[in-house]
Every structure is written in C-alpha cells, then in structure tokens.
Design brief:
InterPro entries: HATPase_C_sf (IPR036890), HATPase_dom (IPR003594), His_kinase_dom (IPR005467), LiaS/VraS (IPR017202), Sensor_HK_TwoCompSys (IPR050482), Sig_transdc_His_kin_sub3_dim/P (IPR011712). It comes from Mesobacillus subterraneus. GO terms for molecular function: ATP binding; phosphorelay sensor kinase activity; protein dimerization activity. By secondary structure, the protein is α+β, with helices and mostly antiparallel strands. It has two domains: 3-86; 120-339, 2-Layer Sandwich (Heat Shock Protein 90). It is 65% helix and 12% strand. It has a five-stranded mixed β-sheet, with helices on one face. Strand 6 and strand 7 (331-339) form a beta hairpin. Helix 7 packs antiparallel against helix 9 (306-317). It is elongated and about 120 Å long. Residues 343-349 have low confidence and may be disordered.
Amino acid sequence: MTTAMRQILWGLTLGLILFIALTLSYMFAFPVARLSDLWNREMMDIPFIIFTFSISVVLGVAFGMASGTYWRRQLKAVDSWLFELEEGQQPEIDSNQSYAEVQSISNRIRKLHKQISEKAMLSQRLATEKAEEQESRIQEIISQERNRLARELHDSVSQQLFAASMLMSAINETKAPAEDDREAKQLKMVEEMIHQSQLEMRALLLHLRPVALKGKSLQEGIEELLIELRQKVTMNIKWKVEPFPLDKGVEDHLFRILQESVSNTLRHAKAEQLEVLLIKRDDKVILRVVDDGVGFNVEEAKAGSYGLQNMHERAGEIGGSMKIVSVEQKGTRLEVKVPILAVAGEKND
C-alpha cells in the first residue's frame, strides 16, 4: 500500500470519527426522541444525517489526500538523496525542512556522505602508499621472473608451435587433391588448432610481461599495451584514452584491472573486436572494456573466478565500483567508475 493510499484511509477514518462526534454533539445539544428524527431534520434541504456524513467524509478524504501527497513528496526526496548517495554523488538537500524528522534525516545523510567521501579518499591515499611501497620492494623480482618465464616459453613452446604450424601448412599445400578427403580435413583441423594455440601463447606471453607502469602515465601504459597487442593478434582493437592526471595508486589499480580484463578476453571470449575507453566525466574516472565475444553467465562466474574477484577488490580499494554486463553470444562489457575526490598532484616516477 502506498503512502498516499494509507493517508487517505486514515483521513477517511478521521472523517467517520468526526461524523460520529458531530452526531453525538447534535443529539446532546438538541435531544431527539428517535434516531429517525435525524433523517427528518434537514440542513440546506439535505437530511441532517446525510449532510454531516458527507461533510465529514469529504473533509477526511481531503485531509488524507493532502497529507498523503505531502509525505509522498518527502519520501521521494529522501529516496532521491539515498540514490545520489549510492551513486557517489553529493545529495542536493534543501536545508529549509519544515519537519524536524525530515531535517534529522537530511542531516544524517549529509554526515553519511561526508564519512563515505572521507573513507574513499583515505582508501585512495592508502592505495597510493601501498602501491609505491610494494612496487619498490617486489617489482624487480616480479619483473625478472615474468621475463624469465616469457623468454623460456618463447624460446621453446612458441618456437615449436611455429615450426609445427609451418610443417602442417607445407603438408596441406603439397597434398594431392585426389587423396583421402577425410584425412585432408583432419590435417586442416590440426593446422587450425596449432594456429589457435599460437594465438593463446601470444596472449599468455603478453600477460606475463611486467604489469607495472614503470613511471609512465596510465594513458601511456594503456596505449603501449594495446598497440603491442594489436601487433600480436588478429583481433580488431580500438581505444579512446583521454589525458588527465591521477594518483599513482589509482593508475596502478586501473591498469591492472585492464590487463586482467584483456587477458580474460584473449583467453575465453573468442572475440573479433575489443574496445577500450578511459575518460573523465563529472569528477569520475570511467574505464570501459567491451568485446563481441561469446559472453558468459556473470552470476555463475563471480563465485568461481579469482580474476573477477580480484578486479572487484581492486576497484573497491580505490573507492570505486565495477559492473559487468555479459550476454551469451553477444559479448561482454566491463565498466569501472572511480570518484576523483581531490585534485591529483604531480605523479612520482
């Protein structure tokens, strides 16, 4: 039941009480021998009992409608404040509230927004400090290990896959047309499987590269990553990256989220197109990654995917939020929004 309906029912109840009170007051002031006399007595050519009943009900319903409309408007205002708070925006609250209860709610929402903003700012600052500290201690070790693994895979498995691909291509080209068609199809299938394995190996080698920005801005890191990726795979890759300063901790987390998302696309999506967007709108940084791959069930993947959980945690550590929309056979869209709570200073290389 809505607030307006509830207030109308209360108004109708109040009208009935008013009708009873008026009737009893009239009978006390002008005693009647029988109750039927109330019907015979008229007011403005209307039987007294009908006149008082109609006036009471109309007044009660009118009061209920006015009260319901007012409180519905107040509740909608509170709902709007909470929605803006949920979206990370500062609620637009009218300071001239007529009721103390609504004024108290508005004051609490202001305090809650202030606390959320302070915690998000603290999270960003801690993320920046944590990123700088960890990068100075372990980045060199991680870089060396990733380079070693990438070099060994490139020198052994990748070269063997390339040789196998060349060999299968030569066999298929020299095979006589009159030979067994079934065998030719099987050889062609093997060649395609080797080609697909080459693509996955290239994606894996790209993923094994050091993930730190190493003094570059987020925009420079994204462009370098996507340019190299475009040279390694046949996927159509597009991007739009706007230049604007960010704290190092925010840049580091967004870059790692992008790498994880691109890696998932290369390994699982079977996509032909990949689009990356990095923009700043209304004091928010928006990172969006869209592909046209096979998609997946987001709810099922959340429970068992370490990568998705890691991306959600990284977005939360910098006071942001991440949403994933995926439709099977139509693609996946990942979007991260991070509020900018202070003007980012000069980045430390």
